[in-house]
Amino acid sequence: MENVPVSKQAHSVVGQEQPVRLGKGAALLEVLRVSTKLGLTSFGGPIAHLGYFHNEYVRRRQWMDERSYADLVALCQLLPGPASSQVGIGIGIARAGLLGGVVAWLGFTLPSLIALIGFALLMQGFDLGAAGWIHGLKIVAVAVVAHALLGMGQKLLTDRARIAIAVITMSAALLWQTSYSQVLLIAAAGAMGVWLFHNRQAEQKQPVSDHMQTSRRLGLACLAALGALLVLLPLLSSWSSNLWVDLFDRFYRAGAFVFGGGHVVLPLLEHEVMANGWVSQQDFLAGYGVTQAVPGPLFTFAGYLGAIAGGLPGAIVATVAIFLPAFLLVVGVLPFWSQLRSSPRMQGALAGINAAVVGILLATLYDPIWTSAIGGGGDFALAVILFSMLAYWKLPPWTVVLVGVAGGVGLGWL
């Protein structure tokens, strides 16, 4: 790749003015425009999003060099939260400071969020419970989660120890369903990973590029805020009967403990919003199916659930809450990333956590997804067709959603 003129690069520490030709306001508008374009066109899930980002930010606009982009992707894939959104936030920070990160998130998130909030309001305004296309969306959820599990299993369960962690976690998740069970299972798997894998050779990589370094003081402040909110929000929720405090607490915890990508948020949110009656099972699965048909991050599913639970204010609260940990983690961990990534104990913990994530998602595939969607041979046949479209024919998710909707209507006529 050709050398990029300094005026086109973002070689700044967060909070300092960047040496770009554009002024601060113009740079923010540029970030908003480009990220919104990506939010309108980035179909296909987190891995596809990273490809879109690379083409737009690195190859076309040269906002970041190849090494810096690879560093940022490596960091975000190991952090809890939505990896593609975190990469977008990091690029926005590098281009236009902290506010640039916020703007980049807004542009990438709003298109799908608006679509899902609209669908949620439609669900509330009409009795769609018996509609065949709703049933079709439930079957889409079966195919999508099964496909995600296939890819994650092949990548993350590479030996007998990891397979054992996944199976044990799956069994425990099905037998022990409480508010904190999944978080505790993930923590236990991390400890098991340190014990089993800490003696293995740590992967050595280049240190993160200088212009993506944020200040340690800011990083520590963000990590402190992340931890403080994890402690204080449950206390506030228990002391207060306010719906918005409870909603923010539940979605914040879900965003803070999701390892493994957008699909893994499904089991955490399923327990949080269905156990207390905020969202019915059919509304939950229908919304998850529709989420596969819109571009942008899968975490905007939280906005749909918030809208079902509390209208437009609920959607805003849920969306901000679930994405806030992602922002705090990116800014907080970046200054310490070079040291953490070379730690054998850290890599062992992540190996155990990733295996547990597969187990939790497998448990969720059975209950509630499979148990509520597959009621006969026709349902199973449609699920296999949709799965094959994703796994073997490599068709985009939105086509799978359309076929699932049509298939659900067709099954209702039989």
Low-confidence stretches: 1-20, 203-210
Q: Biggest β-sheet: count, sense, barrel?
A: none
Number of helices: 16
Strand-residue fraction? Answer: under 5%
**Mean pLDDT figure:** 82
The dominant shape is globular
- Which bin fits the share of residues in helices? over 70%
SS-derived structural category? mainly alpha
Whole-number count of domains = 1
Radius of gyration: 21 Å
The total count of strands amounts to: 0
Distance between the termini: 58 Å
Order of helices and strands: HHHHHHHHHHHHHHHH
Please, could you describe this protein's structure?
The protein has helices at 24-41, 46-60, 66-78, 83-125, 132-156, 160-175, 181-197, 216-239, 243-256, 265-274, 281-291, 301-333, 337-341, 344-373, 377-391, 397-413. By secondary structure, it is mainly α. It has one domain. It is globular, with a radius of gyration of 21 Å.
